[in-house]
Specification:
The chain has six helices and no strands. With about 160 residues, the protein is an all-alpha fold.
């Protein structure tokens, strides 16, 4: 993380935007599962986006408790659109399921707290969460899940199971 203090909600959004912009401007292929501990630039951006989108969930939850008034429909649209853009950068990478789960988590939390979300994201508030799209799932590569052993196989998206 940057500096001494962990980033707040707005800084987290900015970091995600910067990483997404870097992926686009450097034409990085984030759809590839480079494997754990890769040293390539695309992997580093992937890792940053995965970590900071996960971090965004806790920052969003904090906003719900501290300053719920700031989570307007426009703000929820901004957050969900940013996650949608990140998800599109990952293409068919297995983590896109988790990113969709993160969008669903935010849409559901907004609904539970009677906060408006744009109609185009309403499907996420109804999305069924599965083990492989758990928004709190912590992995960078399928290798990370495989290394955990057979009992974690249900975390692998069905289309990536052998």
């Amino acid at each position: 993380m940057r500096g001494c203090m962990p980033p707040d909600f707005y800084e987290t959004l900015d970091i995600i935007r910067e990483l997404a912009l870097q992926a686009k401007s450097d034409d990085l292929d984030l759809a590839v599962d480079y494997g754990a501990k890769s040293e390539c630039a695309a992997f580093k951006v992937q890792e940053g986006l995965i970590v900071y989108t996960r971090y965004l969930l806790s920052r969003y939850a904090e906003m719900l408790h501290k300053s719920k008034d700031e989570l307007s429909e426009d703000r929820n649209n901004e957050v969900l659109t940013l996650l949608e853009n990140v998800c599109s950068l990952f293409g068919r990478h297995p983590i896109h399921h988790v990113l969709e789960g993160r969008m669903a988590w935010i849409a559901k939390k907004a609904g539970e707290n009677e906060l408006p979300i744009p109609d185009r994201f309403a499907r996420y508030s109804r999305m069924q969460l599965q083990p492989w799209n758990n928004p709190h799932l912590d992995y960078i590569s399928i290798e990370d899940i495989v290394a955990r052993g057979e009992k974690f196989a249900n975390l692998i998206p069905p289309e990536y199971r052998k």
